[in-house]
Amino acid sequence: MRLGIFGGTFDPPHLGHLVLAAEAADQLGLDRVLWVITPDPPHKQAQLIRPVEVRLALLQAALRGLPGFEISLVDVERPGPQYAADTLGLLAQQHPGDELVYLIGGDSLRDLPGWYEPQRLLRQTALLGVMRRPGAALDLGQLERQLPGLKHKLRFIDSPQMDIASRDLRERIRSRRHYRYFVPQAVWELIEANSYYR
Asked: How confident is the model at residue 46 (pLDDT cuts 50, 70, 90)?
């Protein structure tokens, strides 16, 4: 079994997330994509993030009825901060014998040498699926020097460029601007019913 691991705060989840995960599954031959919601991301300590219960409800709404996508609570069920290297170690224990393909954006790949124990993260993955982001310039030579063996694990995912960011969506909602078609119907309904992000 080849499992895609798609981590994030998903605050809120949007159509860009779904398109990228679907393209990754298709292009990398993933049997399933595990969406790992991060309650306490180390790189967002200074940022206001909705409670994990709210984000989890929104993610459940976004993925309802979509085969091949499921939510993993591996990070929700342990204290933070949650580092990707630790998350992958736990998922490897939970899915022995499966290939883990870690999905990241091009901007995250650029920052990977500064992550917590990046070499351990690399050892635990069969592949790194990299979703290209607009404007994310990459120096693969420099990255390979910092993380030897990285280039052999990289697979780039071609996807329609949907420049949607959760940060921008939160601001749209707060400002009462149009956002309906940036998120799945069920997510929009939950946000509207509960006045999230207002």
From this structure: low
